[in-house]
Amino acid sequence: MSSLKQLFGGGLRQYGMVIALLALIVFFQIATGGKVLTASNAQNIIIGNSYILILAIGMVLVIIAGHIDLSVGSVAAVTGIIVAIALRDWGIPWWAGILLGLAVGAVIGAWQGFWVAYVGIPGFITTLAGMMLFRGLNQYIGQSNTVPVPTQLQQLGAGYLPEWGPNTGLNNSTLLLGVLAIVAVVWSELRRRARALRLGIEPVPVPVSVVRLVVVAAVIAYVTFLFGSGRYGTSFPIPGVVLAVLVILYNFIASRTVGGRHVYAVGGNRAAAALSGVNIRRTNFFVMMNMSILAALAGMVFVGRATASGPSDGNMWELDAIAAVFIGGAAVSGGVGTVVGSVIGGLVMAVLNNGLQLMGVGSDMTQIIKGLVLLVAVAFDVHSKVNGRPSIIGLLFPGRRDKGAGSGPGAEASQPSAPVAEGATSTP
């Protein structure tokens, strides 16, 4: 039993959403007669949901810090129309258009971050105003017209890794990506064991490490085969590569950097964070600005997939991103959540939506089921905290634990009051 716990990193219940995701895949695979686990369907899931998953990465940091951002869909829409018009009318290259879009997101994020961090307006109100402001700006700039984008930008939203080299039966770019992923996993495991020995800690038994590596490598190998064995000209989608890079980058920022720890500290206990020397204003400014930059990127990915920017882009995106974050284990009160967990939560919703469509379920019942899934997932998480147990969903991946009573309902009442240092004040 101890070896089993070592293998799964402390208990199966920490992987509630992973198990739920796998269960959904198996259920829909059987219910649809094998239509879910096909190369084309897997590619469609990634391409069709990558922009929401990108939003979820930024949204989880906002929610961990104790805020909410309702403007992400409108920010994505106004960025998309600006980039589309710039590429069509100004004659700039596609890469300059992407840089322009990120710059637009940064400016919008600085605007919203200023009101939240330095003026003290709650994020909910600031971004509610931003949702209306930037939605109107999108329609004003584009005159409610559809503006096409060039082929190069379309590759960002719906392109595939190229084919090259000898005929291996799989797309060689996808194959190389899978091999590199397996090598990275093996290297990480060896590095973990070496670090444990260096610190004088007894590492997990070698058989446990071997079994863990075999299981993970087998999953990566299957995913590589699934995406690499599709029809000619398809492979692992480029937006999936962008998403994977962002997950690795932001997981590192959230768990291994001082700035990331400050975000958790601010959301977990703002007064204690201020007394510890955390610059709360700067932290809040960062999370709001970062969210808008990722919203701009998501907007460009969507516009590339849709081949044009339109006046209805971005509608309700913020709700999908927020749902993914909460299903992935973030706490409503802040201070709890993971980047990987939020992406898994987004994939749960994506697979659920895709499976119901393949089964021919109407959009009305699909919305009802998705709403119930969100409600049950969050209720289950809150129930665990109220009863003094670690959050089952919030512990999706080890290394970032819940704050217990300090991060569940009633947490604010349990937090000690303390003076806040000058320059570190922030609104709830």
Description of the structure:
The chain has 428 residues and is an all-alpha fold. The chain is 68% helix and 1% strand. It has 17 helices and two strands. It has helices at 2-7, 16-31, 39-64, 72-90, 94-119, 123-142, 151-158, 172-198, 206-228, 238-256, 258-268, 270-275, 280-306, 317-327, 339-358, 363-386, 411-414, and strands spanning 147-148, 308-309. The protein has a two-stranded antiparallel ribbon. The longest helix has 27 residues, at 172-198. The chain is globular. The two termini are 44 Å apart.
**Radius of gyration in whole Å, from Cα?**
22 Å
Helix segment count?
17
- What's the shape? globular
Distance between the termini: 44 Å
In helices, the fraction of residues equals 55-70%
Oligomer: single chain
What is the element string, with H for helices and E for strands? HHHHHHEHHHHHHHEHHHH
Strand order of the largest sheet: 1-2
Mean pLDDT level: 86
Break the fold down into its secondary structure elements and pairings:
Layout: H1 2-7, H2 16-31, H3 39-64, H4 72-90, H5 94-119, H6 123-142, E1 147-148, H7 151-158, H8 172-198, H9 206-228, H10 238-256, H11 258-268, H12 270-275, H13 280-306, E2 308-309, H14 317-327, H15 339-358, H16 363-386, H17 411-414
Antiparallel strand pairs: 1-2
Task: Describe the structure concisely for a colleague.
By secondary structure, this protein is an all-alpha fold.
Summary tags:
428 residues; mainly alpha; disordered C terminus; 68% helix; two-stranded antiparallel sheet
